[in-house]
């Protein structure tokens, strides 16, 4: 081995830092990978469900609710059990616009927890309905 080259300097241009081109290449790939990951995430969000359905792929849509179930869920919004309250709120949001009349009545509940959760659920349902309407207006016409 020549005396001018030692093992740690292998691959380094004479007088330059070691593996500059390799470091630059690795940094470039890292940046491209980040852009690709962000791009795919945005595409999944934007294209994920153009119909506005809340059911995940492979999952059946929740069964339709009866007025009795809706009233029971609204009552559970004021439950002492936090899990019951959260479950009731999520289910009412899944039910969607059919739950709005009961939720609007619950806004006047003397129980602050019930009124607050009813308001949160109603807002979420209205936002989803508006988003779905917006998507259907902006969708290109079918064949």
Q: Overview of this structure, please?
A:
The chain has 143 residues and is mainly alpha-helical. It has a domain at 67-138: Leucine-rich Repeat Variant (Alpha Horseshoe), CATH 1.25.10.10. 60% of the residues lie in helices and 0% in strands. It has helices at 20-47, 67-76, 82-95, 100-106, 112-138. Helix 3 (82-95) packs parallel to helix 5 (112-138) and helix 4 runs antiparallel to helix 5 (112-138). The longest helix has 28 residues, at 20-47. The protein is extended, with a radius of gyration of 28 Å. The model is unreliable at 42-55 (pLDDT under 50).
Q: Secondary structure elements and their pairing?
A:
Blueprint: H1 20-47, H2 67-76, H3 82-95, H4 100-106, H5 112-138
Helix pairs in contact: 2-3, 3-5, 4-5
């Amino acid at each position: 081995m020549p005396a001018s080259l030692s093992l740690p300097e292998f691959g380094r241009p004479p007088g330059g830092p070691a593996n500059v081109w390799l470091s630059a290449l690795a940094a470039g790939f890292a940046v491209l990978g980040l852009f690709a990951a962000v791009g795919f995430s945005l595409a999944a969000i934007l294209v994920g469900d153009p119909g506005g359905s809340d059911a995940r792929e492979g999952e059946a849509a929740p069964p339709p609710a009866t007025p009795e179930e809706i009233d029971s869920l609204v009552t559970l919004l004021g439950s002492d059990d936090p899990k019951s309250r959260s479950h009731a709120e999520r289910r009412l949001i899944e039910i969607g616009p059919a739950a709005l009349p009961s939720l609007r009545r619950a806004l006047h509940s003397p129980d602050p927890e019930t009124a607050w959760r009813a308001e949160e659920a109603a807002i979420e349902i209205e936002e989803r309905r508006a988003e779905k309407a917006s998507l259907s207006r902006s969708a290109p016409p079918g064949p």
